[in-house]
Every structure is written in C-alpha cells, then in structure tokens.
Amino acid sequence: MEGVRLSEAGILAIETYFPRQCVRQADLEKFDGVSSGKYTIGLGQDEMAFVDDREDIVSICTTVVRRLVAKQGLDLGSIGRLEVGTETIIDKSKSVKTALMDLFCQAGNTDVEGVDSTNACYGGTAAVFNTLSWMESPWWDGRYGLVVCGDIAVYERGPARPTGGAGAVAILFGINPQPPIRFEINARATHMEHTYDFFKPRLGCEYPTVNGAETLSCYLRALDRCYQRLKKRTGSTGSVSDLADYAVFHAPFNKMVRKSFARLRYNDYLTDSASVVDPQGKLSRFRDVPLADSYTDKVC
C-alpha cells in the first residue's frame, strides 16, 4: 500500500498512566534536610510518583495500552506497528515491546512491526518520528501505529532525586482528514551531539550518572538550535507565539519548562528586539551576552 502524505497523518488518541503512590516534595525536603522550597519552588515540583513492588516498566506500559484500546474500542488486529520509547530496561536484550506483544498475540495478531527506541529521554520522540516514517513509506499497510512512552526514573540520594518519577503514555497514530493533532510538513528540526551529561554505564545499577550543570546546558543548547532551525525551515520571522499555539517541552522538572519558554522569547529578542515586548528592559541586559555564556550564567 502506498504511504500517506504527512499532512494526512496525525494523533488520534492519547492515554496516560501514573502510579497511585507519590511523595510530597515538601516532605522530601524535610527528609533530605534541605531548605524549605528547594524542590517545591526551586525546581517547581509538588509531588513525585513512584511504582509499588508489583509494578515495573512492562506492567505500566501494558496498563496504558489496555486503557487506550478499551476507550477507543480498538481491534488489536488493526494495529500494525508498536514502538516503545524507554530507557528503563529489565533485560539487556529483550525489548519491552516484545512483552507487550502478549496482548496482541492473545488477539491473534503477531504481524506488528517495531521494537524499543532507547536514548535517555529522547526515545519517545524517536519512536514518534519512526512511526510517522512508517506511515509515509511503501511498507505501510493502512493500519494504526501505536507509540508507547514510559519510564521509571530513579536517582540515588542527592540533588537529582527530586526530579525522578514514573508514568507511561500511549499515542495512537492514524489517518484522518482532521485529526486532533496533525503533523506539519517540514516543521521539524533536530540537534544531536556527543556529551556525557546523563548516562548509565553501571549496568548492574538502576541509578544514572548525572552531570547536572552539563545536562541543563545541553538542554538549552538543543532548544536554541532546534528553535533557530525550525524558524529557518518554516520561514517564520515572528515570535514563538506566531509560530505555534502551544509549546510542549520535555520536563525534567517543572521550573525547566518555564525557563525553556523564556529561552524562546530570549531567542526572539536576539533576532528582532523590536518584535518582543520588554517594558521593564529585562531582556536588554542580556543583549550582548554571548550565547555560549548564557547557558551557565545564573543571571540569565
């Protein structure tokens, strides 16, 4: 079957799952002996979800798939691709996707493409792009694509621990003249580099190795480059509010999302200061700050 045009492909439904248990960040501040507000105000975190002793990455991904299928009334045979974006592994070779195949095998469907996509927090994004590429390819057979993103983020005691959490999301892709979320042609940009900001070299340990300062700088570099390239590819000369109705960010912690949106406004100001409202002159102070310095300058 001939692949579809990207303008016809979109997200038809989304389902989420979060564990019932959570830790109040204010209580974690007391337990860790840090100042009040360090996590709740400094990081913008209120609560942190965690799984119980009967849950793992397979179970939470299974739950979210079951929920989506039930709510949408789907025949599991109508799904032709399943890809999982996760960095939470329970086996060094066997993918989470193969465990989810239990659901499909019970329905008599073993003709399902896809495996896991693993690269820290980017795996889910890669799974989305891969599924769209499948739908555009001559190998697409007209069935739905399903992307499942899930993680159980656990950190050892220290400054990174309050940024942990757990959850899963299932995203159904298909063809609809007016899908709830449609993907725009050419409205896509990528930034990729080699850095040791976050990695898991200890295969016998679930805790990652984290360079906090570098991971924040890496995030902002990627945001800057992707935004600049996106504006160039789409021919946009306005601000972020002209380019999109909503902005969705990867959220290592909520304060980072606020900083990221402000970062886009900062980029707009550097490109065309006249287009950005700055009544108190707060942005003008950073006009001459080199972009590389702004990643580590706490004033910025």
Describe the overall structure.
The structure is a single chain. The chain starts with 8 loop residues before the first strand and ends in a 6-residue tail after the last helix. The longest helix has 23 residues. It is globular, with a radius of gyration of 21 Å. The protein has 2 domains: 177 residues, Peroxisomal Thiolase, Chain A, domain 1, CATH 3.40.47; 97 residues, no CATH class. The model has no long low-confidence stretch (mean pLDDT 92). Strands 5-4-6-7-1-8 form a 6-stranded mixed β-sheet, with helices on both faces. Strands 2-3 form a two-stranded antiparallel sheet. Strands 9-10 form a two-stranded antiparallel sheet. Helix 3 links the parallel strand 4 and strand 5. Helices cover 33% and strands 18% of the residues. Helix 2 packs parallel to helix 3 and helix 5 packs across helix 7. It has 300 residues and is of the alpha+beta class.
